[in-house]
Design brief:
This protein is mainly α and 143 residues long. The protein is built from two helices and two strands; from the N terminus they run H-H-E-E.
Length: 143
């Protein structure tokens, strides 16, 4: 019986070994295909000119924002200046009326108004002062 058990053991080892070899051959022998879809996104190649244009646009946006802020400050300053000039104009009108009353009371003849400066617009829209017109002066067409 000992020899039968030994033969059965040897046969079973050979069968197991053959099954393992066959199984490895089956795994190795069949080709398996895998489908790979790479999803790699590369940034677009930008030229130096395109980068320079983008930088210029960002710079101009900042400049425009800065300009808007400073113009807002100038607008407030101009409003204050206009209020001040209006008050000065009112005070000067009051002083003129007062001087006129004083001259009448004292019997002083009012002074002739000297030349008045008036601004004339130029072709480009800028204002330039004109020469004052004085009565009886050179260039008066009446003389």
């Amino acid at each position: 019986m000992g020899s039968r058990k030994g033969i059965i053991g040897i046969v079973s080892v050979v069968v197991v070994f053959a099954a393992v070899v066959w199984y490895c051959g089956v795994i190795e022998g069949t080709e398996k295909t895998y489908e790979i879809r790479p999803e790699i996104r590369l940034p677009e190649n930008r030229t130096d000119a395109a980068r320079a244009i983008d930088a210029y646009e960002r710079l101009m946006e900042r400049y425009m924002t800065l300009s808007e802020r400073s113009f807002g400050g100038i607008e407030v300053d101009l409003k204050d200046v206009c209020k001040k000039l209006d008050s000065i104009d009112g005070k000067l009108a009051g002083l003129s009326a007062r001087i006129e009353r004083i001259e009448k009371a004292l019997g002083i003849e009012p002074a002739k108004q000297a030349g008045v400066l008036k601004a004339k617009p130029t072709d480009d829209g800028a204002l330039q002062p004109s020469k004052p017109k004085q009565p009886g002066g050179i260039g008066d067409s009446k003389g």
